[in-house]
């Protein structure tokens, strides 16, 4: 399997990259780690005329804390996040989700920015970004803007990024004290993609009750979503087995679930409730 | 339009003009005649094409040769020599970690990466570390033993 012909430019600054994108408008695609785009190009599902490789731009690969936020450069690999001792301490959902993506080799090369911008309906990062209330920074020749994760995933493989924009950074509010998190997924055994993936970040009050919860679910529908009904049921609730199960039962309220050969829509909905229950339980420990 | 790249493979610098769509695995096999790196599934699943780029095990069927411009690549040919096998290669020999051998180069490269990161892995960690490599013959048991051998040998 060989991609169709294309031209290739590897700019060394973000300014150059966005200039190329605005110049080539419809014909160009951004190449990050390439672990979503190159497979799509080999299958000729994508046939861009020009690849703008942002892999040679310095300063797009980092994990740092600034302004009460965790800031992750778009070219940071899954492995860098998985192996970050600091993140394991302050925001364990990130390394936990990273470690469940693909396999070792994929995590060594694939990037958080590439995965988010690709918006695969079965990818892991969208669920985590939603549950962590991430803000995604987009840069274009016109300037920079922030897009909330809740507004970022528009539809199947479609994001709120506009033509000419590059996702440059992911910003996550540093979780408060008494925050519990978890990411659990039912992986498709052949591909490793999420049949269902549930990311939970919840804050408990001093008495141990749930003060607020954020639940992101991937794999079920055409895009990852916040399970608002689950969050509402958890807010103010005591986190016992019965309450958690009752809240998790709302995992697919109002959601049009996908079905395929491996998992019917009905089975996905069932799995979503089961994995939501398990993830909330794990996060509340 | 072809791009000029320079890639160090097993310590030797190669200057090549390549089409941007040339995959790294094809550069290695078809241009540089290093056929130890195998092509299996071509879909980033099986791991037969695993090589190490700048210390990171990657699937060379999912990387463009132009992305490796300036990088240092190690393939199975560069891991050890016949007279002086890499401990993981020796482990596969001693513990019969292969049958048909098709997945072996990728398994060994992934095994070497694993031992770089965890010097004394448990059997579970080995199986997890090889999750990106498929073997359809051995049932993996001897592969796990081969890596365990390499870990104890490297001490």
Structure report:
- The complex is a heterodimer of chains A (285) and B (155).
- Chain A has helices spanning 14-24, 37-42, 78-82, 85-90, 93-98, 104-109, 112-118, 125-131, 149-152, 228-234, 241-248, 265-283, and strands spanning 7-9, 28-31, 50-53, 63-66, 69-73, 135-140, 143-148, 153-155, 158-159, 166-173, 179-187, 194-204, 210-218, 225-226.
- With 285 residues, chain A is α+β, with helices and mostly antiparallel strands.
- In chain A, the strands form 4 sheets. In chain A, strands 4-5-10-6-7 form a 5-stranded antiparallel sheet.
- In chain A, α10 runs antiparallel to α11 and α11 packs antiparallel against α12 (265-283).
- The radius of gyration of chain B is 15 Å and the shape is globular.
- Chain B has 6 helices and 5 strands; from the N terminus they run ββαβββααααα.
- A 5-stranded mixed sheet of chain B has the order 2-1-5-3-4, with helices on both faces.
- In chain B, a hairpin with a 2-residue loop joins β1 (3-9) and β2.
- Chain B is α+β, with helices and mostly antiparallel strands.
- Chain B has 2 domains: 3-79, Ubiquitin-like (UB roll) (Roll), CATH 3.10.20.30; 87-153, Orthogonal Bundle (DNA polymerase, domain 1).
- In chain B, α4 (104-117) crosses α6 (141-153).
List keywords for this structure.
heterodimer; A: 285 residues; alpha+beta; Uridine Diphospho-n-acetylenolpyruvylglucosamine Reductase, domain 2; Uridine Diphospho-n-acetylenolpyruvylglucosamine Reductase, domain 3; Enolase-like, domain 1; 3 domains; four-stranded antiparallel beta sheet; 14 strands; 27% strand; B: 155 residues; Ubiquitin-like (UB roll); DNA polymerase, domain 1; 2 domains; five-stranded mixed beta sheet; globular
């Amino acid at each position: 399997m060989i991609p169709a012909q294309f031209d290739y430019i590897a700019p060394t600054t973000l300014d150059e990259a966005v200039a190329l994108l605005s110049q080539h408008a419809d014909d160009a695609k951004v190449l990050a780690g390439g672990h979503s785009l190159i497979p799509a190009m080999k299958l000729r599902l994508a046939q861009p005329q020009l690849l703008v490789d942002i892999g040679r731009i310095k300063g797009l690969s980092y994990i740092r804390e600034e302004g009460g936020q965790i800031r992750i450069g778009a070219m940071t690999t899954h492995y860098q996040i998985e192996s970050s001792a600091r993140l394991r301490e302050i925001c364990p959902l990130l390394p936990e989700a990273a470690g469940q993506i693909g396999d070792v080799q994929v995590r060594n090369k694939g990037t958080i920015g590439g995965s988010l911008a690709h918006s695969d309906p079965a990818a892991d990062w969208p669920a985590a970004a939603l549950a962590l209330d991430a803000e995604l920074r987009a840069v274009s020749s016109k300037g920079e803007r922030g897009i909330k994760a809740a507004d970022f995933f528009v539809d199947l493989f479609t994001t709120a990024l506009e033509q000419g924009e590059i996702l440059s950074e992911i910003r996550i509010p540093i979780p408060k004290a008494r925050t519990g998190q978890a990411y659990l997924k039912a992986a498709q055994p052949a591909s490793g993609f999420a049949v269902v993936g549930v990311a939970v970040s919840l804050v408990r009050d001093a008495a141990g009750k749930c003060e607020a919860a954020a639940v992101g679910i991937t794999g079920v529908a055409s895009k990852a979503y916040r399970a608002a009904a689950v969050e509402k049921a958890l807010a103010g609730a005591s986190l016992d087995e019965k309450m958690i199960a009752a809240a998790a039962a709302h995992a697919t309220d109002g959601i049009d679930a996908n079905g395929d050969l491996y998992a019917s829509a009905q089975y996905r909905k069932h799995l979503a409730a089961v994995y939501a229950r398990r993830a909330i339980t794990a996060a509340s420990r | 339009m072809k791009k000029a790249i320079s890639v160090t493979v097993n310590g030797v610098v190669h200057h090549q003009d390549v089409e941007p769509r040339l995959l790294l695995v094809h550069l290695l096999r078809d241009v540089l005649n290093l056929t130890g790196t195998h092509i299996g599934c071509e879909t980033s699943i099986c791991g037969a094409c695993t090589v190490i780029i700048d210390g990171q095990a990657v699937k060379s069927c999912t990387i463009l040769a132009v992305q490796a411009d300036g990088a240092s690549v190690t393939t199975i040919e560069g891991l050890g020599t016949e007279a002086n096998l890499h401990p993981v290669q020796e482990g596969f020999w001693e513990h019969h970690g292969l049958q048909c051998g098709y997945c072996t180069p990728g398994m060994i490269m992934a095994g070497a990466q694993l031992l770089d990161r965890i010097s004394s892995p448990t059997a579970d960690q080995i199986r997890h570390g090889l999750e990106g490599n498929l073997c359809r013959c051995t049932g993996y048991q001897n592969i796990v033993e081969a890596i365990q051998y390499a870990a104890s040998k490297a001490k």
